[in-house]
């Protein structure tokens, strides 16, 4: 007979693998941790407790604006591509399974 010590990890692993809340909960916890870390770094830098590396403060406001513009443009592009792929997928599925799928 198997001891409960050997059965427990297998049961627990199977339960965690089949639950749908585990991954979103882990992502939420990681996001909250990163938020706390970046907020602390920002406040500590503002108070002068720590100094950021030279590559962080070497640019001007215009350079930061250009970087943020490039990031925003790339995010908009990715969102557009994802939306297009979703529409194509739904169109192909509706032609195969009928319009009620939508």
SSE order and pairing:
Blueprint: H1 4-18, H2 22-47, H3 61-97
How would you sum up this structure, described in words?
With 102 residues, this protein is an all-alpha fold. The protein folds into two domains: 1-58; 59-102, no CATH class. 76% of the residues lie in helices and 0% in strands. It is built from three helices and no strands. It has helices spanning 4-18, 22-47, 61-97. The radius of gyration is 24 Å and the shape is flat. The mean pLDDT is 87.
Short description:
Keywords: Membrane, Transmembrane, Transmembrane helix. By secondary structure, the protein is mostly helical. The chain has helices at 4-18, 22-47, 61-97.
Average of per-residue pLDDT values:
87
Q: How many alpha or pi helices?
A: 3
The largest β sheet comes out as: none
* Helix fraction by DSSP (H/I, runs of at least 4): over 70%
Q: Please, how many domains?
A: 2
General form: flat
What gyration radius follows from the Cα positions, in whole Å?
24 Å
- The low-confidence runs, each spanning 5 or more residues with pLDDT under 50, are none
Strand content: under 5%
